[in-house]
Amino acid sequence: MLDRVERRTERQFAQVDHRFEQVDRHFAQVDHRFEQMDQRFDRIESRMERAETRMDRADARFDERMARIDARERQIDERLLTIDANIVGITANIADIKASIARLEGPRPPLVLPGR
Asked: Is the whole-model pTM more than 0.70?
């Protein structure tokens, strides 16, 4: 009877040992998968950092271009104001010249239309 108990115990120990080997292999597979996922995550993180750097550079270029456009718009606005002021001055000069010519010519005779 003791012999039977020993054999059964040996069999159970062998089964437990076999199960531990299976679990150990399974954990090795899981560990390998985690390493693969970690490497994949590192690659993705690296790509994201490079993309962020490119986006930052693109944002900076955009801001520089917008600043140049804004400066150019201000220059154009200043030139338009100068042109407007010149037009007002020229219009005033034309009015003065017309008034001077009218004074020099004196009063005009009434306009007579033919047939009346």
From this structure: no
